[in-house]
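Whiteboard transcription, Tuesday session. T.W. wrote the C-alpha cells on the left side:
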C-alpha cells in the first residue's frame, strides 16, 4: 500500500531511492511534454495568425451584416409593405361583399392600387421576401381568379409560400379551381388532392376532398371519387360536405 511521504523525505534504502528517481523522471517528462505542446501551439498561432483572425473577422462581418440587414432594411420593408397592404386589402374586402361589375372593378383596384397606394401586384414585386409580399401573392391570385384571369391566378398562387393552416391549402386548391376553369380537369384533380393532403382540419380537408371527388366523377374515375367521398364520411362526418357525400357516392358507384 502506498504511504504518504513528507516533504524533504530522504529514502532509506536502494528501492526507495530508485522509486524517487523514477517519480522525478516521470514528472520531468510530463512538464517537458506540456512545454513542447505549448511551444507547438504558439508556433501554430504565430504561423497562421493572419488567416485565423481573417476568418474571425469574416464571421463577425457576416453576423453584423445580417443584423444590420434585419434592423435597417428588412424591418422597414416589412412596415412599408404592411402599410401599402391596407388600401389594397380594403378594395379586396369590398369586392368580396359586392357583385357584378362593381365586384370586378374592386378586385381590379386591389390588384392595381389606388389613392396613391400600391395594389397587390406592385406589393408582390416590390416587397418580395416580406410577409406582406407573400400575402400579396395570395390575394392577387384570388383576385385574378375572381375576374377570370386564370393563368395569372395560377402564377401568383404558385408563388405564395407561407406555412399557414388555412391559407396554404386554400392557395393550392385555388390553383385547382383555375385549372378547372381552363378546362384542364386532370391538373385540377391533382391540385385538389394536394390541397386536401397539405393540412388536416375540418375546413379545408373535406372541402378539397369533395372537389377532388366531383372532378374525378367528371373524369369517369369512380374509384378515386369513392375513395375521397368515403374519407369525408369516415373522418369528417359533421362537415357540410359529408351531408352530400352519399349523393355523389351514388354517381361514382355507377361509373
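and on the right, the sequence the group agreed on:
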Amino acid at each position: 500500500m502506498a504511504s504518504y511521504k513528507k516533504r524533504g523525505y530522504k529514502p532509506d534504502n536502494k528501492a526507495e531511492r530508485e522509486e524517487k528517481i523514477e517519480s522525478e523522471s516521470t514528472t520531468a517528462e510530463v512538464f517537458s511534454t506540456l512545454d513542447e505542446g505549448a511551444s507547438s501551439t504558439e508556433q501554430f498561432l504565430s504561423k497562421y495568425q493572419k488567416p485565423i483572425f481573417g476568418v474571425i473577422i469574416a464571421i463577425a462581418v457576416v453576423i453584423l451584416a445580417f443584423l444590420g440587414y434585419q434592423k435597417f432594411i428588412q424591418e422597414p420593408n416589412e412596415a412599408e409593405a404592411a402599410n401599402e397592404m391596407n388600401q389594397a386589402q380594403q378594395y379586396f374586402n369590398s369586392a368580396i361583399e359586392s357583385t357584378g361589375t362593381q365586384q370586378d372593378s374592386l378586385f381590379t383596384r386591389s390588384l392595381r392600387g389606388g389613392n396613391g397606394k400600391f395594389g397587390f401586384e406592385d406589393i408582390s414585386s416590390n416587397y418580395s421576401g416580406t410577409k406582406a409580399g407573400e400575402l400579396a401573392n395570395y390575394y392577387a391570385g384570388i383576385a385574378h381568379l375572381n375576374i377570370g384571369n386564370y393563368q395569372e391566378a395560377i402564377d401568383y398562387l404558385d408563388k405564395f409560400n407561407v406555412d399557414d393552416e388555412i391559407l396554404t391549402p386554400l392557395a393550392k386548391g385555388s390553383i385547382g379551381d383555375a385549372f378547372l376553369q381552363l378546362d384542364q380537369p386532370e391538373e385540377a384533380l391533382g391540385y385538389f388532392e394536394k390541397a386536401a393532403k397539405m393540412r388536416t382540419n375540418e375546413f379545408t380537408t373535406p372541402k378539397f376532398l369533395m372537389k377532388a371527388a366531383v372532378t374525378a366523377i367528371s373524369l369517369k374515375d369512380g374509384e378515386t371519387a369513392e375513395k375521397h367521398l368515403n374519407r369525408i364520411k369516415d373522418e369528417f362526418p359533421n362537415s357540410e360536405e359529408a351531408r352530400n357525400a352519399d349523393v355523389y357516392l351514388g354517381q361514382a358507384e355507377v361509373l
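Someone added at the bottom: The first helix runs from residue 14 to 47.
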